[in-house]
Amino acid sequence: MESIYVFDQTGRSLLNFSSLPAPSVDEVVSLVLKKPTGSLVELTPSQLAFRHRYGTLDFVVPCSTLVQPMAVEAFVDQLIRCLEAYFDGKLTAQLIESNASTIMQLLYEMVDAGQPRITEPDILKGLVPTKSLLDSLWSSSRQTAPAWNLRWRRQGITHTKNQIFIDLVESLHVVVSSQTKNKRKQPKAMTGSAYYSTTATISSRPLVCRVRGQVKINCLLTGDPRVSLQLGRASGPNALFTSIAFHSSVDSTQWESRGNISFTPPDGPSMIAEYSLDISDPGLVNAELLRNVGADRNEFEVRVSTSMDTTVEHIQGLQVVVNFPQSTRNIKELRLTTGDLATSTPKKACWSFGAKTPVGWNATFRGQASSEDEPVQPLYATVSYRAIGRVPSKLAISGLSIQNQLFQERPYRGVRYQTLVDNFSIR
C-alpha cells in the first residue's frame, strides 16, 4: 500500500498519508472518485487504487498490482475499526479533519514501508495517547521532560538481554521458456544408440527473473540505539536496485551518500527496507519442461536440479506441479527417478520431494498424457520451495554497528537469509 487518502462527499481531501511514492490527490480524484465504490481502478499498468465508502467518506488506497485486493479491503476495514475505537464513535469529515495530525501518527504506527504493522486498537492507544491524556501529561511534565521526536519508538525502553535479529527475506518471480521439439519422428534405431540420452542438459535462460526483498529486524535493545547496516553483494558489484523504500526511521542521506542503512529502530519486529531488482540466474533450483520427446514425440519430461551451495543445508518443501489442458483424461508415469507423484485430478500432476531436498541433486519425471482420442502435452509447470542460508540476489549484511550509551556489553546479533519461491513457472 503506497498511500491512504480520505475524501468527503464533495471530493475534498481530508487526509493524505503516504508511505511510498504515490499518485497526487488530483490524479486520485479524477481517476478514482468518478468510479463506483468498492471497485479497483487501474492507475498505471503496475498500480491499482481501491475505493471504500464509509458513510459520506471515501477511503482510497493506491497499491501495487501484486497486492491481493482482499488484503487491501481487510486493512481498510481494520483501519476504520481502529479509528472508531480510538475516537470512541463514528467517523465524520469534521472529526477526520480536526484530528488529522493524530490520525497521521496512528497511520505511521499501522503502516511500515507500505505493509500493515500494528492494527490492534489497544496497542495503538498506548503508542499514540489520546488528546485528553496528552493534555494531562503535558501539564505535569512540560517543565522537566525533554522533547522526544521518535514517533516509532517509545522513550525509556529497557531490556534485560540486549539483542537484535535481522532477516533478509527474498521472494523470487521466475518465468522460464520450456523446450518443445519438432514433431518430426526420429528413426527408432537411434534410441538404442550409445549417444542417445534422455538427460542431456538443456540451457534455459529465464525470460523473467525478478526479486522482491525485505530487510526485517526484531530489536530488543535498551534506550535509543543507533544501528548502521551495510547491505551489499557477498561477491561481485553492488546490486542495482530497480526500487527501494525505507521505514521512516532510516536516514536516507546515509544511504544515498555511503550505501548505509542507518536508523534508530522501532522496538520489537519491524520492516526497515523493501526493494526489488532483476537478476539473471534463479540460483538454488533450476527446472525444465520438455514437450514432444520420445521415439514417437508423444511424451513429456520434467527435470529439476539443485545447485551446490555451502551456505545452504537443504531445500525445504520442493514441489513441481505440471498443468495439462482441460481435455486431459489420463496421465501416465513412464519414469520417475525420485519423489512422490500425485495425479488426483487428470489435469494436474504434483511432484513432491518431502521436507528436505539435498543440494547438488537432480531428478527426472517422464510421462505421457492423453485426452479421449489423442496425446496431449503439458501447458506449463510451476516450482515452489523455501531455503535458509542465502538469497537469490546474493545480497548480504556485510557490516553491522550499534551505538548506545546505556549499555557497554556487546549485544547479541543474529542474521538469517531466507528464500521464498512460489512464483516460478516454465511455459
UniProtKB/TrEMBL annotation:
Domain MHD as annotated: residue spans: 185-427
Keyword Metal-binding included in the entry's annotation: no
Keyword set includes Chaperone: no
GO cellular-component term (any): endomembrane system
Subcellular location: Endomembrane system
Sequence similarity: Belongs to the adaptor complexes medium subunit family.
Name assigned to this protein: AP-3 complex subunit mu
Taxonomic source organism: Wickerhamiella sorbophila
